[in-house]
Each structure stands twice: as C-alpha cells, then as structure tokens.
C-alpha cells in the first residue's frame, strides 16, 4: 500500500495544485480542480489530516472497504494513516472544499490535543456528517475565512489564526454530529438492536474463542468502532465496551444461578483465558465476587 509522508507528494498524486504552505493546503472545489483530480485510487495512506465538504457529487468513494454516495452537504474527516480509496465517479456541478494539513502542522499546539477529542476522525465515510442548508452555509463561511487567511501575506499571526479557525470548524462539526445522532434516532435504535444480536450470536457459537471484540462486531455491522461506540453512547449513555461488559455479566449471572459450574469453568465458557480476569471484571461491575454473588442468592 502506497504511503505519502509529505503533503506535497500527496497533492501531486491527486493532481492538485502545489500548496502555498509546506504543511497546509486549502482548496475550494471548482470544475477545473475536479477535471484534474485523480479519477480513482487503490488504498493509500498519508501523514495528513483531511477535511472535506462536497455537495452535488454522484459516485462511489471508498474509505477502506466502505462505499458511500455523497449527496448535498456531506463532510468527511480523515486522520493520518487512515486508509483512503475511491472509485471512478461521474461528476456533475459541485462545490465545497478540501483542507489538508500534515500532522506536523499542528504538532505541539493546542489543536494537536483538541483534535484527539473529535471522534469523527475515526469514522468511515458512510458515517459522514450531513449538513442542513444553514449548517452548510456556516461551515462554508468558516472555510472562506480560512482560505482568505491562507492566501494572505504570511506574518507572525497567520498560523495561530488558521489553527484557531480550524478548531472552530471542528467544534461546529462536533456540534452538528451530535445533532445528527439525535435526528437519526431510528437509525441508532436499529444499530443498537443489531449490536445486541451480534452479542447473542457470539455466545450461540459452539466454540467460544475470547470475549466479544468491538472491532469484530463493528466490522460485521459495517461501521467504525468509534462510530458504533459514539452512537450507543448517545442512545443509551453507555459505550460499546460497557454494553459488552454488561452482556457478559448477565450471562455470568445466569450461569452462577442456574448451573453448578465452577467459577473457573464459567469464565472459560464466557471466553476468558484467565478466570481471575473474569472475577475482577465481575466484582467491578457488581460489587461482589462471583462466589459471593452465588452464595447470596442461594
């Protein structure tokens, strides 16, 4: 898989214009830009963060193995070393922007710490941010300010201003994602049901190897780990990991009450390699050891 360590090599690969800053590129989407844009690409990775807003674009764009059809007002966020891939698409009139910056551009800055809090950089493209018309106007206005500063004569304030504007753009994006989770409650409920079904299916297998894994479940549901956990957190107040732990505890309680199996055997049945790890988790969740729980109910 090809990896681009520099911003310049990545832009050259895309057939995009050279950037005015060695670590930052700010490009509005124009018909001329998209005519030169590389039509398709096998999986690649970069050392860059990418923020895009694309509107009125038909075609399939892949991030990893996930396909997504962009429609009006869709934002996507890519973090360094995230797999990026796209297929040839048929373009029509479109607008939006590409902001690409190397991870060194924000190194040792406040944004380098803040950006870790924006979970959507771990989402796949089918989990894109869909903007309302007013939200799109606001995001475009922030971009226009970033673009104006980008083309301004560089001085001692330039980088700090752009970093502040990038943080503002990401803060608004975070806000809009939260709105999207609320507005798509039906989708969230379906995802929660599918998640629970995967847990039940895991323990219905004849041979259990390990405890349920968030990554495996997310892959089977065709979502990213972070999106799965964020969706469940918004819907139920508990992350995917917490849901898995609670499911395991309920299975353990059924076995402690309904069977005469030893604690060690129950631990093995639930996929734990070491019984003491099971006992530690059980006590953390219930306040009692498995033996204490069994004795108190018998």
Q: What structural keywords apply?
A:
Jelly Rolls; 16% strand; Arc Repressor Mutant, subunit A; 2 domains; five-stranded mixed beta sheet; 298 residues; alpha+beta; five-stranded antiparallel beta sheet; elongated
Write up this protein.
By secondary structure, this protein is α+β, with helices and mostly antiparallel strands. The protein has two domains: 182 residues, Sandwich (Jelly Rolls), CATH 2.60.120.280; 107 residues, Arc Repressor Mutant, subunit A. It is 49% helix and 16% strand. The longest helix has 26 residues. About 2% of the residues have low confidence.
Terminal Cα separation, in Å? 59 Å
How much helix is in the residues? 40-55%
Let me know the average pLDDT: 86
CATH class assignment of the largest domain: Mainly Beta
* H and E order: EHEHEEEEEEEHEHHHHHHHHH
Pairing-aware structural class of the strands and helices? alpha+beta
Number of strands: 10
CATH topology of the largest domain: Jelly Rolls
The CATH superfamily of the largest domain bears the name: Regulatory protein AraC
What integer value in Å does the Rg equal? Answer: 23 Å
Identify the overall geometry. Answer: elongated
Number of discrete domains: 2
CATH architecture heading of the largest domain = Sandwich
Main beta-sheet annotation: 5 strands, mixed
What is the quaternary state of this protein? single chain
- What's the helix count? 12
Strand content: 15-25%
């Amino acid at each position: 898989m090809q990896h681009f360590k520099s911003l310049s090599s990545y832009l050259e690969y895309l057939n995009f214009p050279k950037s005015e800053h060695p670590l930052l590129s700010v490009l509005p989407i124009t018909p001329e830009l998209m005519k030169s844009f590389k039509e398709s690409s096998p999986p690649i990775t970069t050392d860059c963060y990418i923020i895009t807003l694309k509107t009125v674009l038909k075609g399939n764009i892949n991030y990893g193995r996930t396909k997504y059809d962009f429609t009006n007002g869709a934002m996507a966020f890519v973090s360094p070393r995230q797999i990026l891939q796209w297929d040839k698409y048929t373009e029509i009139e479109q607008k939006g922007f590409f902001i690409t910056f190397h991870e060194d551009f924000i190194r040792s800055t406040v944004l380098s710490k803040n950006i870790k809090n924006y979970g959507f950089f771990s989402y796949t493209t089918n989990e894109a941010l869909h903007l309302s018309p007013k939200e799109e106007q606001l995001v475009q206005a922030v971009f226009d300010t970033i673009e104006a500063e980008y083309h301004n004569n560089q001085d001692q304030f330039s980088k700090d201003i752009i970093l502040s504007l990038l943080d503002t753009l990401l803060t608004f994006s975070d806000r809009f994602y939260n709105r999207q989770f609320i507005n798509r409650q039906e989708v969230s409920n379906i995802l929660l049901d599918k998640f629970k079904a995967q847990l039940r299916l895991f323990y219905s297998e004849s041979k259990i190897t390990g405890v349920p894994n968030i990554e495996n479940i997310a892959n089977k549901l065709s979502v990213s780990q972070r999106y799965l956990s964020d969706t469940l957190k918004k819907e139920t107040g508990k992350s995917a990991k917490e849901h898995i732990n609670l499911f395991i505890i309920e299975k353990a309680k059924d076995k402690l009450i309904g069977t005469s199996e030893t604690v060690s055997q129950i631990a093995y049945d639930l996929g734990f390699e070491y019984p003491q790890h099971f006992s530690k988790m059980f006590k953390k969740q219930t306040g009692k050891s498995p033996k204490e729980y069994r004795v108190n109910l018998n």
